[in-house]
């Protein structure tokens, strides 16, 4: 049987029968392996990069010392774990004092990424991975000015003195802590006990930095999650900073969707090609049966065929996919994360295995048909096997897709949601495709003969035509949305971060320092975004009750009610904010005697606050009450000073305020910061430039990856087109020769082919642009709260691109028809 | 109308020249009806394709409506066909993407004549398919498809009609109807008819029968029907 299978395979190969099937499968596996590997590598490299922000793969924070058995368990598993303690204390030198946030390190730091230590403030530092030696301290640059010390000097730390050993230029964890008021210092853990600085009742936070291989790390983290109590917190690598987290999540969704689409498209191509293969083998099957083969044996023969096709196609696809992914990674190494991680086995295995699964899922129904041909077909050609219920075929295909998705995502819920969305979307897309097709056919009847002929070709297999329109339309929908969302994201970022967006913040500016600061900045040609007041206060009551009475235990644990808040007043809604409930005071009558408050909606939700609730604040020992009159959404990744609570202007005039300002400072002008610190030693400088550059680069990488992957979706679309062209091959040959016999010139045949392809391209392009606009507008309204936006240029551009692309690709597949000798019309084709 | 001179066709088959037709010289006058008969492989279809300019001879001459087909390129021959030739095929060869009406309109439009729709409708009425104008080939029976094909063949008012086994794929009842239709229309419109067939009864309805054997004309004589007719006179 095997030998017969080989012979059949060779014959089919020579006759070109299996080539389409192989082509589709190769494309499928190639796309899956390449997309899988690239996604996986970029993804892991991005994860590595964001781990660098955190200083580890995970951090574990606890208000009490972490049980030593937990740490030992991790260490014995082979993980790297560095313990650290954080607390606030005062550093002094002579008469100068500064409140600092201390991180005392008990081991190597950071575990991921590096720390950059310099000899002088605001200069290039040396990159290293270590901890300060016992007896030494690393300081943030602004502390040097306040304390009036330089590297090599000593500072008082509790009951001991520490030598300033370096200035912190960049350290992990900065991104999430930029608005921590107290400047940061790093010391060796040994010095904490010696300094006698931590007393009973001191507020400490204990942090474990954890890093290691995923296979060891993930189970340990999972175990830790089960052990920890509600006061302890695990932060994963990806959650390092909110801005990064959002970018990574968006990217992952896109990439997952993209590989899914290429799988589905390849599946369609395989199903179409398998359908043709099976029909071409009905005659053989009937003859085999007449010659005495049993159904079981015919089944076996063709299952062997399928397996051979599967092995060869998967092998080819695997090789091409691997080659392609390394080509891509090398080609785009400039914009991809560095260092790039190596290839991992999972996507390779998944890709090639899922190739086989897709082949089985989409081709098996057609192959099983072959053996069911009644032997009588040798006499009566019109006899066909009883068609398998299309529901079974659909269910099988959907089952295969679900299996693949589950394999990739490992989440049944996600699979369920994705499948439901995919099926609904698919049905919608088919409906629109059908509609466009019908209109096109109706309009096409009014065109020239060549156009009508092209329409006739499309009309002949409406199901295939609609599949093709859906496939290409889908590819264009995704591409269009990527392009539009990318430009939307980028322009949103650029509007937030134009070239000279503020990259430095000054806080703790005293009222009397505002004018000198303004003139100092002016002298150095630095323009500010304005100087804003800020009052530090604590929430102490709600609706005339104490917090203990008004809030439950969980709510009281919210950071915003446990520590002092930055309170401000503004006349207008800040830019990155939007009122979601209630009305801003500019819309209500001013000076109505009430003290009005605006509260961030997330905070309000956590504390169960409603409009009309009255909050009591304690500011510098005095109390003030305010009524909540509106809630705001706050865009936390906007790199602007954001406030949980904003007061109506005038209501905080009685309280001492410090001021905050921000400005743009290019790298070469960083020395201005030294002047500021010298003139106003209590001012706190926050440098954002490095973080902003890094976030921007990650965003670029993400969009790059998404755009590149769209190419594969298009390639899978080409596989569908070729499969369908192959299916209609005989009829096309006949039509071409027949037209010649009836007196048509080559020009006419060329025109009719091009008309058909152009129509296909036009329909797909229209679907793409309609679907793209709908999708983008849904995303706009969901994610960006942007009103309906249409993109008229794309209405012209997308169909044009679609027509050219499908025209060129299709022409390459059909141009041989022109040279078909006319006398073949007299032969049985 | 149609004239050949020492028509020879050789093809390469596994490295060897294989002569399919040799030295065929024929003349067909206007409004003649000629049947080309012979066993399978005798060269009937090859001769038909050369006569209609679907293929080029290896040597010899073909003149169709005063045009030297053997000297024309593919597009020029197509233009001659569009102008003067109609076809009926064994397998009907309707274009599956076009309705019955559109199939019949096609040659009229290729010839760039006016009133394509009206004339196609008239012809379909003549072949008894007025109810089926907008049906597609796969919605028609074999006999109906061949009637559409005949309507299409006469649609452009060709001077000469080539028919390749027009009844070959039909049962005898349908075959008889089709041949009646073919000869009736041929007579009405005064078309020259060249048909290739196995079917002696069909061949007998032509005025002349050309018999091929091994690529050579072995007989070229008036049919019994023609003789009978002559005898009647």
Automatic annotation (TrEMBL), chain A:
Its main location: membrane. The chain crosses the membrane at residues 254-274, 301-324, 344-368, 388-407, 413-437, 461-485, 708-727, 748-772, 792-814. The keyword Membrane applies. This is ABC transporter permease. It is found in: Cell membrane. Pfam families: FtsX. Residues 257-375, 708-821 form the ABC3 transporter permease C-terminal domain. Keywords: Cell membrane, Membrane, Transmembrane, Transmembrane helix. InterPro entries: ABC3_permease_C, Membrane_comp_ABC_pdt. It is a multi-pass membrane protein.
Automatic annotation (TrEMBL), chain B:
PROSITE patterns: ABC_TRANSPORTER_1, ABC_TRANSPORTER_2. InterPro entries: AAA+_ATPase, ABC_transporter-like_ATP-bd, ABC_transporter-like_CS, MacB-like_ATP-bd, P-loop_NTPase. Residues 2-233 form the ABC transporter domain. The keyword Transport applies. Keywords: ATP-binding, Nucleotide-binding, Transport. One of its GO terms (molecular function) is ATP binding. The keyword ATP-binding applies. PANTHER family: ABC TRANSPORTER ATP-BINDING PROTEIN MG467-RELATED (PTHR42798:SF2), LIPOPROTEIN-RELEASING SYSTEM ATP-BINDING PROTEIN LOLD (PTHR42798). Belongs to the ABC transporter superfamily. This is ABC transporter ATP-binding protein. It comes from Kangiella japonica. The lineage of its organism: Bacteria, Pseudomonadati, Pseudomonadota, Gammaproteobacteria, Kangiellales.
């Amino acid at each position: 049987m095997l030998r017969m299978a080989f012979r059949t395979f060779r014959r089919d190969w020579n006759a070109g029968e299996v080539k389409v099937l192989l082509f589709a499968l190769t494309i499928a596996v190639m796309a899956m392996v390449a997309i899988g590997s690239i996604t996986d590598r970029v993804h892991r490299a991005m994860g590595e990069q964001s781990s660098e922000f955190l200083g580890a793969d995970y951090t574990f924070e606890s208000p009490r010392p972490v049980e030593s058995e937990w740490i030992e368990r991790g260490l014995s598993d082979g993980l790297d774990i560095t313990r650290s303690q954080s607390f606030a204390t005062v550093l002094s030198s002579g008469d100068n004092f500064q409140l600092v946030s201390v991180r005392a390190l008990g081991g190597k730091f950071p575990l991921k990424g590096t720390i950059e230590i310099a000899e002088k403030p605001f200069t290039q530092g040396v990159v290293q991975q270590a901890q300060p030696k016992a007896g030494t301290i690393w300081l943030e640059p602004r502390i040097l000015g306040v304390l009036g010390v330089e590297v090599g000097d000593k500072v008082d730390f509790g009951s001991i003195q520490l030598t300033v050993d370096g200035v912190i230029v960049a350290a992990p964890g900065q991104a999430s802590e930029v608005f921590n008021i107290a400047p940061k210092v790093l010391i060796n853990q040994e010095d904490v006990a010696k300094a006698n600085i931590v007393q009973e009742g001191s507020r400490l936070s204990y942090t474990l930095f954890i890093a290691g291989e995923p296979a060891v790390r993930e189970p340990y983290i999972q175990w830790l999650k089960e052990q920890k109590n509600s006061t302890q917190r695990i932060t994963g690598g990806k959650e390092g900073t909110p801005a990064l987290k959002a970018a990574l999540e968006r990217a992952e969704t896109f990439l997952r969707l993209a590989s899914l689409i290429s799988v589905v498209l390849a599946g369609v191509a395989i199903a179409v090609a398998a359908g043709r293969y099976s029909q071409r083998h009905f005659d053989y099957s009937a003859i085999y049966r007449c010659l005495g083969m049993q159904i079981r044996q015919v089944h076996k023969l063709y299952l062997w065929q399928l397996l051979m096709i599967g092995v060869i196609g998967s092998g080819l696809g695997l090789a091409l996919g691997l080659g392609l992914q390394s080509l891509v990674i090398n080609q785009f190494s400039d914009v991809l994360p560095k260092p790039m991680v190596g290839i991992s086995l999972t996507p390779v295995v998944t890709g090639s295995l899922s190739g086989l699964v897709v082949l089985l899922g989409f081709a098996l129904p057609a192959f099983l048909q072959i053996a069911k041909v009644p032997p009588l077909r040798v006499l009566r050609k019109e006899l066909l096997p009883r068609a398998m219920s299309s529901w079974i075929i659909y269910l099988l295909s959907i089952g295969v897709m679900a299996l693949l998705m589950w394999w990739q995502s490992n989440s049944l819920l996600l699979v369920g949601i994705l499948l439901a969305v995919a099926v609904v979307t698919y049905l919608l897309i088919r409906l629109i495709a059908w509609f466009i097709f019908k209109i096109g056919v109706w309009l096409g009847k009014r065109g020239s003969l060549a156009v009508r002929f092209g329409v006739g070709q499309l009309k002949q297999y409406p199901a295939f035509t609609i599949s093709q329109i859906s496939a290409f339309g889908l590819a264009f929908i995704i591409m269009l949305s990527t392009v539009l969302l990318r430009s939307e994201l980028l322009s949103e970022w650029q509007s937030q971060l134009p070239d000279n967006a503020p990259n430095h913040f000054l806080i703790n500016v005293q009222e009397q320092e505002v004018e000198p600061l303004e003139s100092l900045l002016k002298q150095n040609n630095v323009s500010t975004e304005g100087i804003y007041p800020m009052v530090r206060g604590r929430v102490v009551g709600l609706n005339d009750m104490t917090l203990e009475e008004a809030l439950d235990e969980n709510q009281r644990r919210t950071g915003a009610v446990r520590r002092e808040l930055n309170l401000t007043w503004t006349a207008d809604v800040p830019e990155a904010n939007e009122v979601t409930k209630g009305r801003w005071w500019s819309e209500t009558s001013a000076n109505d005697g009430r003290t009005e408050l605006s509260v961030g909606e997330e905070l309000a939700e956590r504390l169960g606050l409603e409009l009309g609730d009255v909050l009591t604040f304690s500011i510098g020992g005095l109390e003030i009450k305010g009524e909540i009159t509106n809630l705001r959404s706050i865009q936390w990744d906007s790199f602007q000073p954001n406030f949980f609570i904003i007061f109506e202007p005038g209501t905080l005039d009685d309280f001492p305020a410090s001021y905050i300002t921000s400005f743009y400072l290019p790298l070469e002008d960083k020395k201005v910061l030294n002047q500021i610190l010298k003139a106003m030693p209590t001012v706190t400088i926050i440098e954002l430039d490095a973080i902003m550059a890094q976030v921007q680069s990650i965003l670029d990488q993400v969009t790059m990856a998404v755009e590149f992957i769209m190419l594969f979706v298009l390639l899978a679309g080409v596989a569908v087109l070729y499969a369908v062209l192959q299916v209609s091959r005989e009829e096309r040959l006949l039509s071409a020769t027949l037209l010649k016999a009836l007196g048509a010139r080559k020009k006419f045949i060329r025109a009719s082919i091009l008309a058909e392809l152009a129509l296909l391209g036009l329909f797909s392009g229209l679907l793409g642009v309609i679907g793209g606009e709908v999708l983008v507008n849904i995303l706009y309204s969901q994610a960006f709260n942007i009103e309906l936006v249409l993109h008229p240029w794309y209405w012209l551009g997308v169909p044009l691109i679609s027509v050219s692309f499908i025209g060129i690709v299709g022409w390459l597949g059909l141009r041989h028809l022109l040279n078909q000798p006319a006398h073949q019309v007299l032969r049985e084709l | 109308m149609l004239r050949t001179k020492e028509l020879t066709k050789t093809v390469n088959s596994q490295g060897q020249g294989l002569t399919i037709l040799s030295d065929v010289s024929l003349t067909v006058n206007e409004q003649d009806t000629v049947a080309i008969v012979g066993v399978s492989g005798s060269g009937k279809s090859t001769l038909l394709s050369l006569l209609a300019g679907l293929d080029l001879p290896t040597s010899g001459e073909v003149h169709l409506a005063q045009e030297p087909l053997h000297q024309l390129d593919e597009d020029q021959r197509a233009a001659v066909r569009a102008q003067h030739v109609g076809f009926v095929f064994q397998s009907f060869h309707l274009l599956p993407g076009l309705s019955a009406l559109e199939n019949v309109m096609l040659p009229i439009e290729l010839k760039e004549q006016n009133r394509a729709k009206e004339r196609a409708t008239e012809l379909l009425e003549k072949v008894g398919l007025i109810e089926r104008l907008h049906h597609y080939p796969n919605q028609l029976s074999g006999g109906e498809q061949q009637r559409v094909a005949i309507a299409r063949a006469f649609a452009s008012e060709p001077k000469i009609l080539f028919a390749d086994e027009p009844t070959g794929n039909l049962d005898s009842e349908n075959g008889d109807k089709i041949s009646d239709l073919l000869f009736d229309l041929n007579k009405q419109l005064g078309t020259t008819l060249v048909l290739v067939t196995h079917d002696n009864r069909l061949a007998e309805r032509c005025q002349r029968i050309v018999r091929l054997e091994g690529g050579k004309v072995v007989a070229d004589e008036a049919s019994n029907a023609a003789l009978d007719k002559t005898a009647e006179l």
